[in-house]
Each structure stands twice: as C-alpha cells, then as structure tokens.
Amino acid sequence: MLTGKAALVTGAGRGIGKEIALTLAKEGADIALNYNGSKEAAEETAMQIEGIGRKVILLPCNVSDFQACGAMVEQAEKEFGKIDILVNNAGITKDNLLLRMTEEEFNMVLDVNLKGSFYTIRHITKQMLKRRYGRIINLSSISGVIGNVGQANYCASKAGIIGLTKSAARELASRNITVNAIAPGFIDTDMTAVLSDNVKEGILAQIPMRRFGSVKDIAETAAFLASDKAAYITGQVIQVNGGMAM
Prior knowledge:
seven-stranded parallel β-sheet; alpha/beta
C-alpha cells in the first residue's frame, strides 16, 4: 500500500508513534524516525523496522525548536530523496488545574504539541508542493474535541491542531496534498497505565465499547490516511474513541 513511499514520524520512539512507524513500514514505507528523550526506545524501534526490511534513519530533535525542525526535515529529505508522508505525533502533557497552571506549563505544551506540528508542516510542504504530492497526518485528541479537567494547556494544543489541520488542508488541496487529523480517545499506553483502577473504571463507563483502544487502532487509521485509498479525504478529524464522543 505504501511501497516506494518515505515517511517522517515525530515522537516515534514508543507508544502510538512507534506503532504508527512500524505499521507504515509493514505497508512498505521507509521511515525517518524522530525522537527527543527516548533514545534507547527509538533505537529499538529502528531495529524492528530494519527487521521488516525497510530503511530507517534516527532523527533526534525537539520539535518545539523551529530551526531544529528545519534541519530534521532537510536531513530526512536528503536521505530518502523525498518525504511523502508526515505524521505529527510528538506530544507532551503538563496537567494542572486551571487556577494552578503556570505560564511555563501552558507554554511548554503548546510549544511541543501545536507549534511543533506547525513547524514540521511549514518546513516539509515546500518539497511536497513542488512534487504535487503529500500526506500529512496530525495527532489531535478527544481532549481537543470535548475538553478535560486539568488539561487546559493540552486541550488547547489539541484543539489548535484541528484548526491547523483544516487551514492547511484548504491551502494545500490544489497540489494533491491531503491534511487530516486523528483524535484518539483513551488508548492503552504508558500514559494511561499509570491511572488508578477507580479512574479507569470511571473512564470506561463513558465509553460505549467498554474498553480502551489500542495503539494498533490509531496506527491502522494513520496508514489508511497515508495511502492513496484516502486520496479524496482532506481536512477531516477522524475520531477513534470507541464512541466516547460522537
């Protein structure tokens, strides 16, 4: 499905980003794998991609740095000759109640989650426009759709990604570049594993399917949006949440 394509996946050392990178590789894509604070995990992911038989390069970069993002994209394009697919997955949380949240906590989350997504899109679209082809997939969240207590910064960043996605989709559509967002619900990852049983039970009660999603659920959605099967889909927010938000 993605044979001959090259993809840049941010925050791909572990969790959802790792699964997306592996799934795209299984579909035939070579992978430029970005990470920031998880070098060992990223190296392990790279080994798995090589085991699939695909090319992979590791690209350490803090996506909140505009110039560093430019250098990362340039290196990825130099290695593979092009980047067909961009997946903006890198993200952080700094949860706190609104009245206790500091300016630093608010800014840090927006810098990585929202501005980081803009930076990579800003740098990568130049060659996509020239080639008249591209698939851009941004990771939003159910929190960016319905809000969440204690996550004003995270929700703002993920809601912002939805606006960024729709605006970019309108600007780039005429050049055969699609831009879509995935808004996961509660997914089994390291972030949800630390929740108490009482909290998990409360969340499950709000999910009609009565289970957390898996990283595979998100990765398969990303692979579809990255493929030519989704060539006429752009500006959309695909909610993968078991019915929690409809």
